[in-house]
Amino acid sequence: MATSEAVITRMDVKDVRFPTSLEAHGSDAMHTDPDYSCAYVIIHTDANDSLAGHGLTFTIGRGTEIVVLACKTLSRLVIGQKLSDVYSDFGRYWRKLTSESQLRWLGPEKGVMHLATAAVLNALWDLYAKLENKPLWKLLVDMSPQELVSCIDFRYITDALTKEDALQMLQENLSTKQTRECELLNTGYPAYTTSVAWLGYSDETLSKLCEKALKEGWSKFKVKVGADLADDKRRCALIRKHIGWERKMMMDANQRWDVNEAIDYMKELAEYKPWWIEEPTSPDDILGHAAIAQALSPLDIGVATGEHAQNRVIFKQLLQAKAVKFCQIDSCRLGSVNENLAVIMMAKKFGVPVCPHAGGVGLCELVQHISLFDYICVSASLENRVIEYVDHLHEHFKYPVCIKNACYMPPQNAGYSTEMIAKSISDYEYPKGSAWQQLIMEGKFQTP
Ligand SMILES: C[C@H](O)[C@@H](O)CC(=O)C(=O)O
Ligand SMILES: [Mg+2]
């Protein structure tokens, strides 16, 4: 694959926030007032082609400035790099970024540093796809199995997935991938919606949004639970009243419970027939998830988790311990495409469907590319597989997602779909953007 001889000359990092808390968009049992935000990275080179890589990592408001600083700290490993050195051995470069001898003390491969790693690498993948003039999913689909595995750092996962396993997996699907690509171009990748039932929505809003979603053709709905059992029962009953019993309902507790509490609580909610319970407890508690999965299996409720799983090692253990029935990768929590490739291949090996998390700004735009690649080259199945969709803030992206009949249609524009409209960045840059100045003046937010 041809890559540019250009050298990275500059990396801009911005703190971009949207006031979603004003209307309780994105609210759940633990994150009651999120302002969907991101650390936004733009990578420039010395090439005379006006191409720049745009990437982001998702945050929910306060603390974004810390992620921005972490991105800036990583820039010493980015500026001066020749693009061909990055892309010709992307796995090696990934390790350079994540294993820097002093910075790794701040992680390793977790928390703020890993969120920053995702923002930087998402920008580099965006630039890579733009240089090849392809949407990211197509860039991946057209790579050879060898090129793909060279993007992955297999350190810490070879007891579950070796390079040879990954190569074999990819090779097995080569002869049929064209058919699946055509299928996706025609029908898209199935999705579910979370937008109808954020925890802070009133019953009236919930009913209105359910009816709207039904008209749009949605058949799978996620509801936030975990703050109050009686309230959850009322809301779940209301949603079932609208969507009936044939359509699927998922529940998301966002880490609210202890292990036994999760089991007891879900026994109470079982009557509403949830397909899965998402993040029932701490994202670090692998054995706890396994215990919950075992206890809820007779009720036919699967455990889903991953949006806070900090790296491929946690996913490896969740899979090894049979702790998850649905594997929820995240384009910004993990170290970009490279680490997501490792996780989707591990999930394939353990026979667990990947259903990405996308509740946040830009996450739908990003993760659709990974799922399209997953189906075409790795899983070769759509059974029990859905991408999350949330109906917020797409208007700020240059190439927003396209949903038809409750499916993600494959993006056609070159890149990783992360580029925001320049005016949106300047208006919502925190706190100096005009939108924030206005909100502060109106007394809706305090001066930081
Ligand atoms: C704070 C976020 O909105 C979170 O609730 C998203 C989430 O858990 C999901 O989309 O799933
Ligand atoms: Mg969730």
Automatic annotation (TrEMBL):
Reactions mediated catalytically: L-fuconate = 2-dehydro-3-deoxy-L-fuconate + H2O
PANTHER family assigned: ENOLASE SUPERFAMILY, MANDELATE RACEMASE, MITOCHONDRIAL ENOLASE SUPERFAMILY MEMBER 1
Cofactor(s) required, per the database record: Mg(2+)
Enzyme kind, highest EC tier: lyase
SMART domains named in the record: MR_MLE
Keywords of the record: Lyase, Magnesium, Metal-binding
Name recorded for this polypeptide: L-fuconate dehydratase
EC number(s) stated in the UniProt entry for this protein: 4.2.1.68
Record domain Mandelate racemase/muconate lactonizing enzyme C-terminal: where: 203-299
Species of provenance: Saccoglossus kowalevskii (Acorn worm)
InterPro entries for this protein: Enolase-like_C_sf (IPR036849), Enolase-like_N (IPR029017), Enolase_C-like (IPR029065), L-fuconate_dehydratase (IPR034610), Mandelate_racemase_C (IPR013342), Mandelate_racemase_N_dom (IPR013341), RHMD-like (IPR046945)
